[in-house]
Amino acid sequence: MKLKRVRDAARPEIALTLDGQPMTGQAGDTLLTALLSAEGGFLNTNPFLNEPRAGFCYMGACQDCWVDVDGRGRVRACSTLAEPGMSVRRL
Ligand code: FES
Question: For 33, which of 4, 5, 21, 47 is 20 to 30 Å away at the CA?
Answer without folding.
Answer: 47
